[in-house]
Write a sequence for this structure.
């Protein structure tokens, strides 16, 4: 939590970055907007601006000694303890308190985030007490998550759910608890360190691309102000008091004015027009744009929303929602917004005449034929069903992702069972420990002398938590790009199938690698990496032609898996080929050599899928033979739909992990 004694760099002294400052201010005026994500390179002042914002805000009235900082003026948002006093007409003691920046560390556990049982109080009193977490501290404050893209997915899900509902629901060690958790959510990230999943991006209402200032005059002014602040923070802050107060008063006035702001129905049509033209998924963008436009009007001292307010809101709401697929780069076309607004204005004036014209204008686009290309484009990718089968063994693994359920070797993950400790207890299962100790309490108290604790616990009672989390997998694609794949309908379908699996791998944080074989050899074009965008980019430009060195492709795929396999990895090799091998590796028959490598893959226990791209009247069935040797799941290209792929990967990826699961 931000210190209240340290002098903070003034918000009004921050040079440029107007869009970032506006997005932050709009969220504190109207927390129901839904938070802001600041995306940008390092050293652009993202963290500095967030901390400066809290220092700018007026103090809030809170209930004294309430861990959730309840607002005494809003009975509907009180915690259980404060609500009980309010119902009984007890006076709630109040005090003024500064708004704080509550930071969520990247390495935070779920218990630290949502709260847990206060063990010390439970042992002394024999009662269960809730120990609030970060979401309790964040109530009526700013919750700041630096490097949100590096946070574990299950923590991000919990966090965003609390932000959406304004309430934190906790189930811990047999205790159900809820408390208000209304905060301004602010996330920052450097895209160079990896992207957020599109599903999570969409949960942030606003997004701003923060870039370094290229103008030397502004850069020089930043240096001058920073040096002046470091030389004498108090004096520098005092010199900016007027600027700070002006912004503070403007925020307070906007907060008062906001409930009176109206948006005309025709402008609501403009919002939906823009969102439709940008083809955003769902309706969060429309709602966020409505709230943001109203808040912009209030911030500018108006109770009527204008067309310009909606345009400004669109620039904050849409950039991170344009990603139709996870691999697409986020972008913002100012011209496209202007065209949507112009289209809306034209439709208002001449809508009856434009109905037929708009249909006629679409016809040339539908009839336009794509140009011939040397590199085939991928077919439209399709959704792969969730591959959520657990790894049913008792091996503790360390990893992160969203595919395979595993037993965690750390304090991260969901508490699913308890066990006798194998050494020093580092993650106490308090409820299980209490149950183990309960039958012996009477005897122990009779034997104890001068014992004040309500519970008497001995070392034999201790139980440790078993936590379950998810991890990604290592998927190695071995792709045939030889001349026999050159028929457009086959290579396009092949690329579409691989792209579909890449999309699924991206969403589930798998590591992926890619081997391509063509002409006389195979090439590891992508060593195993978490950046599946690189695989997609190479796939998009993959040329087709030459002979088919299948044995070399399989061997290189095997070598790549073995050389990069981690202790915790669950590997899967995906072969995509027509099997018409015609280049040998060791001087023998090309097909037989491919079978020998396939046999070696099977002997290593590496699970695999063989996707046969061969079609037509005359087929050789070579991929099926290799599949049988490799112990693969065999699929034909025309079977590559979501259900068959999901079933195949689920079966092969988790085959032989059939030990008895832990009892929960």
């Amino acid at each position: 939590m931000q210190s209240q004694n340290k002098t903070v760099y003034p918000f009004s002294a921050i040079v440029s970055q107007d869009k970032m400052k506006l997005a932050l201010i709009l969220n504190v005026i109207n927390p129901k907007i839904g938070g802001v994500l600041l995306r940008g390179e390092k050293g652009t002042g993202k963290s500095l601006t967030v901390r400066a914002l809290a220092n700018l805000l007026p103090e809030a009235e809170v209930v004294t000694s309430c861990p959730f900082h309840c607002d005494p003026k809003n009975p509907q948002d009180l915690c259980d303890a404060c609500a009980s006093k309010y119902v009984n007409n007890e006076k709630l003691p109040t005090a003024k308190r500064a708004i704080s920046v509550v930071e969520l560390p990247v390495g935070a556990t779920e218990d630290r985030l949502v709260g847990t049982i206060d063990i010390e109080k439970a042992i002394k009193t024999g009662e269960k007490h809730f120990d609030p977490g970060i979401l309790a501290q964040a109530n009526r404050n700013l919750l700041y998550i630096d490097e949100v893209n590096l946070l574990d997915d299950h923590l991000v899900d919990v966090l965003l759910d609390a932000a959406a509902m304004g309430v934190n629901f906790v189930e811990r060690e047999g205790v159900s608890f809820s408390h208000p958790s209304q905060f301004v959510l602010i996330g920052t990230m450097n895209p160079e360190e990896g992207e957020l999943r599109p599903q999570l991006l969409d949960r942030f209402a606003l997004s701003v691309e923060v870039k370094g200032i290229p103008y030397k005059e502004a850069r020089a002014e930043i240096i001058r102000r920073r040096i002046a602040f470091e030389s004498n923070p108090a004096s520098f802050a005092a010199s900016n008091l007027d600027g700070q107060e002006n912004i503070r008063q403007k925020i307070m006035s906007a907060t008062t004015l906001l409930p009176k702001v109206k948006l005309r129905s025709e402008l609501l049509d403009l919002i939906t027009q823009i969102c439709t033209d940008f083809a955003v998924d769902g309706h969060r963008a429309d709602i966020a744009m409505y709230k943001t436009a109203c808040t912009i009007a209030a911030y500018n001292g108006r109770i009527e929303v204008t067309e310009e307010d909606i345009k400004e809101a669109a620039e904050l709401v849409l950039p991170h929602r344009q990603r139709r697929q996870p691999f697409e780069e986020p972008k913002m076309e100012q011209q496209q917004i202007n065209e949507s607004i112009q289209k809306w204005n034209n439709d208002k004036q001449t809508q009856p005449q434009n109905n037929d014209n708009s249909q006629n204008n679409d016809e040339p686009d539908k009839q336009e034929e794509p140009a011939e290309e040397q590199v085939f484009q991928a077919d439209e990718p399709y959704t792969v069903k969730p591959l959520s089968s657990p790894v049913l063994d008792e091996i503790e693994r360390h990893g992160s992702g969203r595919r395979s359920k595993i037993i965690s070797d750390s304090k991260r993950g969901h508490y699913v069972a308890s066990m006798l400790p194998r050494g020093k207890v580092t993650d106490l299962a308090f409820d299980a420990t209490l149950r183990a100790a309960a039958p012996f309490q009477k005897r122990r108290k009779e034997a104890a002398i001068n014992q004040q604790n309500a519970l008497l616990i001995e070392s034999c009672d201790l139980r440790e938590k078993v936590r379950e989390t998810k991890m990604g997998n290592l998927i190695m694609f071995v792709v045939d790009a030889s001349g026999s794949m050159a028929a457009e309908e086959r290579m396009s379908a092949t690329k579409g199938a691989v792209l579909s699996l890449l999309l699924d791998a991206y969403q589930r944080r798998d590591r992926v690698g890619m081997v391509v074989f063509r002409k006389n050899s195979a090439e590891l074009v992508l060593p195993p990496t978490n950046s599946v965008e690189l695989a997609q980019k190479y796939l998009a430009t993959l040329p087709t032609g030459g002979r088919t060195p299948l044995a070399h492709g399989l061997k290189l795929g095997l070598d790549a898996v073995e050389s990069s396999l981690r202790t915790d990895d669950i590997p899967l090799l995906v072969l995509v080929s027509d099997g018409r091998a015609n280049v040998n590796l060791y001087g023998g028959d090309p097909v037989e050599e491919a079978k020998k490598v396939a046999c070696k893959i099977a002997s290593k226990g590496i699970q695999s899928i063989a996707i046969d791209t061969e079609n037509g009247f005359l087929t050789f069935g070579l991929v099926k033979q290799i599949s049988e040797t490799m112990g693969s799941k065999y699929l034909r290209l025309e079977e590559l739909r979501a259900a068959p792929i999901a079933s195949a990967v689920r079966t092969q990826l988790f085959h032989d992990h059939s030990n008895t699961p832990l009892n929960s």
About this structure: The CA atoms of residues 26 and 403 lie 37 Å apart. Residues 353-374, 384-404, 642-647, 654-664 have pLDDT under 50 and may be disordered. The first strand starts at residue 36 and ends at 40. The chain has 23 helices and 21 strands.
